[in-house]
Amino acid sequence: MSDISIILGEFEKSDIKLNKPAPGIRIKKHGTGGIEFIGKDKIKADIKQIKLILRNNAIHNAIVEVTKPSGISEFQDAVNESVIYLQAIIVLTKTDLSGSENFQKELQSKYKKFEVIPASLTKEKNIDILKDKIWSKLNLIRIYTKEPGKKPKKDEPICLKKTKSTIKDMAQQVHKDFIKKFKYARIWGSSVKHPGSQVGIDHKLHDNDIVELHMK
Length: 216
Description:
Elements: H1 2-13, E1 16-18, E2 25-29, E3 35-38, H2 47-56, E4 62-66, H3 72-79, E5 84-86, E6 90-92, H4 100-110, E7 116-118, H5 127-138, E8 140-145, E9 158-161, H6 167-174, H7 178-181, E10 182-188, E11 197-199, E12 210-215
Helix pairs in contact: 2-3
């Protein structure tokens, strides 16, 4: 268990935040006017200290929008461009050994921010569950393409970010010229009310959507 603490400590030293949400702070720099706050009531620290943190990071003129309760540590993370936020789980192997269930309980009790998944490759225990957990942590969606009159390519999904991915994002991954030649797309899936609906390039996609691109 001490090995896990060492590993987690190295992540922290490298500014990699595991299972921690990013601060609800957006900073938009501009030329003049000083520092203006939107959502000032959500700042849980002395404003003078916050302004000092910003100025120490060369932010002298900016609109700072605060959408979540934020204190000193949140602002320090927000101005630190090296900070990365990642999702993680703990995988407990060798679950066929005696005492593994108790060890799992100890892990879960000590590392409450992490879900502990017991798995065994040799006995194929919880492998499908582990795959699903890893996929959910990646925060991605799968998009399938099809050509007119043909079946969708279910064995060749395109993976996109779950938040706000559009037809344009998908087309850029397929071929750079598709954006220039794009005419419309037809969609089968939960992002449209009717199967085969015609949509534009800014249409937001859902997981498992099937997309048929039409070019000029």
